[in-house]
Each structure stands twice: as structure tokens, then as C-alpha cells.
């Protein structure tokens, strides 16, 4: 079992990814983002995104009800359905689901994010949270009947309200349920870079034992990504490949070990 | 088995509809629209909708690729996921699917719509078509496992491309597959009106044998709706209720025979 995470950047070569996947015999589940589409739509609607930085240094998008609407439109709507269409065109019998559908991804809403506003500590509560579990029986039902689940946010909280979450965390609970050996993470970079501004600084291999120390070297969004990868190994993943989603053969490249191989 | 069609107008009382459905023991499938949301988003994005009127007098929305994007955002995205969320909050284990997912609704793309531009006859080909069949095994799989399918456009054509279609036609192929006895159609009116501007002119009963003659009395969109209802009976439906989707108990009312009962 493979989990393929597709980043939501606008340079991601989604056609090439789906074409590659059509040639794969192993079973897989896709988790995708759509942040470029979300940000564009939010701008077009005059609701530019606001980013919160927690006191611990993690950044997240401020997810009010309007942003959730925009996410339903772009993640669960436009991006998910265009990916499903592309899959179907390549003979992949895809079924696109948000975390709300069949309560596929169940989470816990954040109590509040501690942020500094100026020098003042404030707690802001929005519609965001952490995934806790997935609906494994529904996933199995689909997989056993030949369907490929294409998953995306929003997810559903304990009050059965739609909440935003990080797709990296969705991948974590998904891997826990499916015990996927391999996680392929397709991003808008050649892999993990020593220097984020220098593509030549690609780190080709990271032993999973080094992840904790790597995590302390990086900041913000990348820090969160490292943490997410470390948790995958704690749960039994044996291989995580972070690879370039912009290439002509993103999945084939990843499976051949191009990018950053962690294991 | 009941098919509940929920109109896409902005006055539809979606909360009340889902609340009513939570109290029903019979199995059902929902098909919903989102035209008010679609038109609003299209306007907000500076792509106001264009309506085509065929030489036979049927009107349809000109569905280019951009409109399909907007439909994915509003029908399959925002409206579908907010309905799923509402269902989940009421204990209905809803799974929202477009016609693309698992090729749930398979159609045939229109070869072209014959329209007059001034006095000139022109054929315009867009991404629209007619549904031909549904993925009955996937529907059964979901229903048999306790899930309620929430269906909407777009659907998928023979080239596996997303196309727009009328939800009335989706209901028709769905009824054919499920042999639902009852179809409830919730609209922004008390039912079929003799005079569309007079709510008091409600037609309480129409024998199915009179549908063909009624069809000839009306125009445009209503003509198409009558035709769609007539086809349901040709396929074995025994009861179609067209009822007010704006009331406090739209489904309960419809099941009690309020609105227009055809049978």
C-alpha cells in the first residue's frame, strides 16, 4: 500500500502524476492539497488569507467559516473533481472524498491557537484542528471494490463540524490505519533542501533516526513537515520519499529513489 | 426507496430538509442543485452566465470549461459538502459524490445545441450532455453499508470528461436504476402552479396520464421539468411529489401530500 500526497502548489504537474499512477499495480490512496487555488479564490473574492503564527513558531491559516467555504470550493470541489476526472480518463476508478464524507477523517477541533498580537498573548479559536482517525472500513470497502480514494480537507470534528487541518496530519492518520509501507510526498521542490534557496543542496537520504535533530534545524512550515514525517516512522512506515511534483514523471522518479529518501 | 431532489435556489430551507430526513426510516438518495451559488460565484469572478435557448425552446446554461470549474466549486464543493456536514450533524452518514466519482453518473455529451443567433442558425458545442446510466453497484455498496449518497453534477461523458447536465435528468437515470417508488422534488414554489405568478393556483393532483398535455401548456425550464416527470412514470415511478422546499418541514409536508402530487 502506498499513500501519495500531492501538494497544492500551482506548479505541480498533476497530469504527469496521474499518468504515472495509471501504470502502478500496487494499491494506493491519494491525499491532495489545493493551497494555490484556495489563495487565488480567496483573493478573487476579496478575502485574502490571514496566517497565524503560534507561540511555538508553527504557522497556520486562520480558518473562519468563510475560509472553510473557500476550502470546500477549491479542495473538495475544483481540485478534487478535476483530479478524479483526470484519473477516470486514465482508467483509474477514482472516488473523491473530503474528510466529511462518511466521516472519512475525524478530528478534534483546536481549543485555540496561542498567538502574540504585538506583545499581547491572545487565544484565537477558528475552525481548525487535528485529525484523530479515519473511517478505515469505508476506505477498505472502496479499495476492495476497485476504487481509488482521493482524499482532501476539510475534515469533521467531534461536534460534526467541518474543520481545516494540515494534509500532512491527514497522511499520518491514514498511514496509521492502512499501515502503508511507503509514503510519497510530491512537492514544489526537488526534495528536502539543506538551503531552501539552493536546489543543489538536496539531501538525498535521511536515516529516520536523524529526523528529530533535522526538525530542530528548520522553521515554520518545514518544521511541521519534518515532525509529520517523524510521526509516520513512529507508526511503522518504512519509507518516505519527498520528491519533485513538477517533473515529467513525479511518481516514477519517487519510486526510483529520486528526491529525498527517508528510511 | 425515495429519491429526494433538492433545488439549488437560495430560499431552499436546507436545514429543515435534513432535519426531516433524519426522522425517516426508509432508504433514500439525495440529488441536489446549487444554481444560486453557481450564479453568485460566476458573477463574483466576473464570468456571468450565458443562457442558450435551443430552436425547440429549451433553455440551458452555456457550459464552457470555466463554468464547469465554477460548478465543481459550488455544486460538488461548497453545496455538497455543507449538505454532508449538515447530514452528519443530524446523524445521517452521508457521502457526497459528483457524477465523476466512481463514474457515478455516466452521460453522453451533446453534439451541439442548435440556437438562433439573430436569424442565423448556429450549432454551439459546450460541456453539457444527457445522463445515460448510474453506477448502481457503487450506490448499492454505499446504501447496503448504511451510507446515504448525496449526488450532484457534473457527470462524466463517454470520453471521461466532466459535463454539465440537468439534475432532473440525473433523477431520471437514478430512478431507473433504483426503481424508487417515490420521488420528492423540493423547489422554491408551493408545487406546480397553473399561473406561475399566483401561489394560490397550485395544482394539487395531476394524474400521470395528463402529463403529456400539461407539458404542452408550459414553456422553457418548466417544460423540461414536466418532460422529466413524465419519463419517471414511463420508468415505473408510482408517485412524484413537487413540494415547497422553503417551508419549515419540506419533506414531512411532501410525504403528507402537500404540494403537487402526481401519480
Q: Catalogue the unreliable spans of chain A.
A: none
pLDDT averaged over residues of chain A: 94
Across the major sheet of chain A, the strand order is 5-10-2-1-13-15-16-14
SSE class of chain A: alpha/beta
Q: Determine the strand fraction of chain A and express it as a percent band.
A: 25-35%
Task: Report the helical percentage of chain A.
Answer: 25-40%
Main sheet attributes: strand count, strand direction, barrel closure of chain A: 8 strands, mixed
* Topology of chain A as a string of helices (H) and strands (E): EHEHEEHEEEEEHEEEHEEHHEHE
Gyration radius from CA atoms of chain A, angstroms: 18 Å
Name the quaternary structure: homodimer
Helical stretch count of chain A? 8
Shape of chain A: globular
Largest interface: A-B, 39 and 39 residues
CA distance, first residue to last residue of chain A: 16 Å
Number of strands of chain A: 16
Amino acid at each position: 500500500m502506498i499513500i501519495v500526497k500531492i501538494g497544492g502548489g500551482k506548479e505541480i504537474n498533476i497530469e504527469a502524476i496521474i499518468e504515472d499512477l495509471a501504470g502502478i499495480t500496487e494499491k494506493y490512496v491519494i491525499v491532495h492539497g489545493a493551497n494555490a487555488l484556495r489563495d487565488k479564490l480567496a483573493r478573487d473574492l476579496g478575502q485574502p488569507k490571514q496566517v497565524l503564527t503560534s507561540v511555538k513558531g508553527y504557522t497556520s491559516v486562520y480558518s473562519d467559516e468563510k475560509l472553510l467555504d473557500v476550502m470546500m470550493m477549491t479542495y473538495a470541489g475544483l481540485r478534487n473533481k478535476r483530479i478524479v476526472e483526470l484519473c477516470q480518463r486514465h482508467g483509474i476508478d477514482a472516488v473523491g472524498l473530503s474528510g466529511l464524507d462518511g466521516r472519512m477523517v475525524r478530528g478534534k477541533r483546536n481549543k485555540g491557537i496561542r498567538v502574540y498580537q504585538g506583545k499581547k498573548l491572545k487565544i484565537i479559536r477558528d475552525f481548525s484542528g487535528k485529525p484523530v482517525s479515519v473511517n478505515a472500513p469505508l476506505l477498505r470497502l472502496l479499495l476492495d471494490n476497485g476504487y481509488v480514494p482521493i482524499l482532501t480537507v476539510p475534515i469533521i470534528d467531534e461536534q460534526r463540524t467541518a474543520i481545516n487541518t494540515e494534509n500532512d496530519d491527514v497522511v499520518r492518520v491514514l498511514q496509521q490505519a492502512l499501515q502503508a509501507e511507503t509514503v510519497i510526498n510530491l512537492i514544489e521542490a526537488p526534495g528536502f533542501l539543506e538551503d531552501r534557496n539552493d536546489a543543489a543542496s538536496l539531501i538525498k537520504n535521511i536515516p529516520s533516526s536523524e529526523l528529530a535533530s533535522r526538525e530542530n534545524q528548520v522553521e515554520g512550515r518545514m518544521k511541521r513537515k519534518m515532525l509529520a514525517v517523524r510521526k509516520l516512522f513512529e507508526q511503522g512506515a518504512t519509507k518516505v520519499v519527498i520528491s519533485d511534483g513538477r517533473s515529467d514523471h513525479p511518481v516514477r522518479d519517487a519510486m526510483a529513489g529520486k528526491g529525498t529518501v527517508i528510511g
